[in-house]
Amino acid sequence: xxxxxxxxxxxxxxxxxxxxxxxxxxxxxxxxxxxxxxxxxxxxxxxxxxxxxxxxxxxxxxxxxxxxxxxxxxxxxxxxxxxxxxxxxxxxxxxxxxxxxxxxxxxxxxxxxxxxxxxxxxxxxxxxxxxxxxxxxxxxxxxxxxxxxxxxxxxxxxxxxxxxxxxxxxxxxxxxxxxxxxxxxxxxxxxxxxxxxxxxxxxxxxxxxxxxxxxxxxxxxxxxxxxxxxxxxxxxxxxxxxxxxxxxxxxxxxxxxxxxxxxxxxxxxxxxxxxxxxxxxxxxxxxxxxxxxxxxxxxxxxxxxxxxxxxxxxxxxxxxxxxxxxxxxxxxxxxxxxxxxxxxxxxxxxxxxxxxxxxxxxxxxxxxxxxxxxxxxxxxxxxxxxxxxxxxxxxxxxxxxxxxxxxxxxxxxxxxxxxxxxxxxxxxxxxxxxxxxxxxxxxxxxxxxxxxxxxxxxxxxxxxxxxxxxxxxxxxxxxxxxxxxxxxxxxxxxxxxxxxxxxxxxxxxxxxxxxxxxxxxxxxxxxxxxxxxxxxxxxxxxxxxxxxxxxxxxxxxxxxxxxxxxxxxxxxxxxxxxxxxxxxxxxxxxxxxxxxxxxxxxxxxxxxxxxxxxxxxxxxxxxxxxxxxxxxxxxxxxxxxxxxxxxxxxxx
Length: 652
Hints:
Elements: H1 3-30, H2 36-50, E1 54-59, H3 66-75, E2 95-98, E3 106-111, H4 121-124, E4 132-135, H5 141-148, E5 154-158, H6 159-164, E6 179-181, E7 185-189, E8 191-197, H7 201-204, E9 207-211, H8 215-220, H9 222-228, E10 234-240, H10 247-257, E11 267-272, H11 284-302, E12 309-311, H12 314-323, H13 326-332, H14 334-388, H15 394-436, H16 438-454, H17 458-501, H18 514-530, H19 534-539, H20 542-602, H21 606-640, H22 643-651
Helix pairs in contact: 1-2, 1-14, 1-21, 2-14, 3-12, 9-20, 12-13, 14-20, 14-21, 15-16, 15-17, 15-20, 16-17, 16-20, 17-18, 17-20, 18-20
């Protein structure tokens, strides 16, 4: 099974999961069990599934065959090349291939001059007027080819301009972006970034392909190394079989792909163009030995096991696919790479979606079921009380009424404590967002900017950057202290209500800021490697260092804080909701019990009628509990289905 087929199966599984969640929400709504909080949580799960994307990045120096490999893996079955693939450079700027149904088919191009402004690519994506849009005629292959050539466009500018835009002029002609040309001009890309919005089936299913240019262009665009590459679910690093690992290849691997921890999950090395080693004067065994030698050499140089290096011929694989030549396809070794990518990428992505959805859904289900069980317990208690009144005189009824009144008064006294706790909860929440909120980050960013502006030596610049990260981590540490206090307080009051009033409450859900602290650590590591170094601080003017720090590093830190804020707000809302629901339900049950006994006290003949009513309600509640179990099991069945099982069943 090819990667394209495997990805289509993953898309179908994701749709089944979304359908199951929608059915579950519809059942809750039909049975009047879907309050605003629950509805919002299910909608958030559905939105995550709708926005789910699978990011695959292709990274290499120029002329390694990235575009041809993308064509061979993803677009060969459509009988044409989607991306231009010719001799020389075909991708001059980072290019994202994706599909957004809200936009027409087009290529959006960001002018290289936008680098001079203090704005990142992700920020500029909000402003359509700064991008040049070229329509794509999806019915005309020739028109498509012509439009797609725009990603290869270059400009020739003076050295000073090239340096200002982040390109170092290369003295060796033809060696890449920033190549010096005649008249002391430098060749640079015309565009800073490209987004190809194309209604291809795989892209419509959520695949996002990132095609990157070579070393010089990667280094000139920090957002690639800070955000786009680290967030990719898989990175294919392409080498040329005839050259092996060159010096510039090694620079890309060390700087941007290989991890310091040595864990290279999701990183696959492709040794492309093995057809260049196919020599008619050599035997198959000699050719295989030469390919194996290059694999061994590349693995040793990159510090990887040989089973992570995949020798292929993208061009022959593409031709074989288009012409239906199975023998050539086998010789190109493309299927082996696709199999490895499928095994590495799709199951890992499915596991992430399963884990995130299962935890949230289980909590929604257990809380809703707990509400039904609480109603059933209250109803059975009421039934027991009324059954005991059969044949009793008015004195017994009055005693029972007094007992329920006392219970109601005790519960209302307990409510005063709950309201006091809710007030303290609000104070703790305010303190949490005082540390974690964006206002504190804005203040930190402003103070860091002032310290860097006032700095007269590179040491002061360096200390200001370090202080930014230390203060960010301190905000997370203090936030975690507040989170522990909130959890301890909620846990204590819940236990009190469970013991004193018999409420059915599960333990409060735990929330951790660990992933956000790790992201701050990663940003600092990048900063210490690419910006906060003696060389960078000594060779670049202060304005340039500040621009890069605030455009890229501080911007990424703000996005991390924004995500932490959103998740913390969702957690806070979900924390009190089940207890408030149970308290409200208990109040209603106490009121109903008291009203039932009052009516019976006034007219004894209504006793049997009321008991029969409650027995009918009991039957309905039991049916609802069974129905919610079935509805939840349908979702959990999809969640527990491994993709390979589902794929095999469909194939059968």
